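Supplementary Methods, section 5.1.

A reviewer requested that the exact input to the structure prediction be made available. We therefore reproduce it here, unchanged from the version used in the analyses.
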Amino acid sequence: MTVRQDQLANGVRIVTEHMPGLESASIGIWVTAGGRHERLDQNGIAHFLEHMAFKGTETRNALQIAEAIEDVGGYINAYTSREVTAYYARVLKDDVALAFDVIADIVLNPIFDPREIEVERGVILQEIGQSHDTPDDVIFDWLQEDSYANQPLGRTILGPSERVSAFSVEDFRGFVAEHYAPGNLIIAAAGAVDHDALLRMAEDMLGHLSPRKALVAEPATFTGGQTIREKNLEQAHFAMAFESPGYMDDAIYTAQIWSTAFGGGMSSRLFQEVREKRGLCYTIFAQTGAYADTGSTMIYAGTSGDQLGELAQITIDEMKRAAEDMTPEEVARARAQMKAGMLMGLESPSTRAERLARMVQIWDKVPALEDTIARIDGVTTGDLRTFAEEIATQAPAALALYGPVSGAPDLAQLTERRAA
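The structure derived from this sequence is encoded token-by-token as follows.
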């Protein structure tokens, strides 16, 4: 498999990976503008804009956009995260040019029809309402807000209903002008794709765009804090986050391996101690996420209200114990899980295209897969114990509790237990 990368004169970046033997390809445009690039008065507009891309262009209406891809058996979709907005499709190899034409069209030429805006506004307001009715969704929004209080990175991607209800055509055009600059566009493709052909298409369709400086995201600081909301639910939802490395920090591999060993699977410490031995919950896990300048390691569990206090305290105790006795066998197992998950995922052209775009976004290049594996293999038991000590006792923390949580320990009490 060969990774190739080019850049147009105006700053648009193109990265591909040919995967021999495949009859299909995944192709998309990743825009390095997401939720954290919004001002307070824009919160939710990046996600709304993603929806509007499919509602019509100067040459295609919404139905024609969908039919263009589905008529050839393909699939088209998009998503908005806190750092990127992605528009992508999966098609057979003979339809790559068609897919790229459609994607470039919806990214560059949305018409923002006022009637379609109102239709999609209703859809997004329903989406926001649904998220508020889903405890194990909304609790992560609260946790993010507590982790990065009063900062763009802490705001929800969907945005508040009152702002979504007020966005206008001018608001959409303004955000595009601020952030959809050529230097923020990454064309990524993997599978049965011809790099030179895609480069020519990119030049034809995007080469005319004038280079311009895009606004950059506000730096983020993990603040910590808590949200505790009592509600009559069947389960009490517990989520706790700790400051951890960003993706520019080599320690990100240590953080990811720790979260895998601690709560990443059925063999992990949390699963074995909290669920298997004590039966305190059905779902419990840990995971690490990262951004350009910060990161967060999170633990989540759902349990009954009367068992929440015990679960929270055991979780803190297990974190502290991991700093003392994390074993080489646990580290080796977590490394193997991390590598296997990554390598299995990369058998899919969609996942591989996503990785290409992500790597270019982070480092402006695609590190060799062997280098990434070497960094994972380089994490030692000592590294894990040092990280475990930091996260168990010193790292800033955030807490979100939702449901029948009366009497559960709050952040101050859990911080005391961490320090004890």
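The CA atoms of residues 245 and 295 lie 5 Å apart. These observations are discussed further in the main text.
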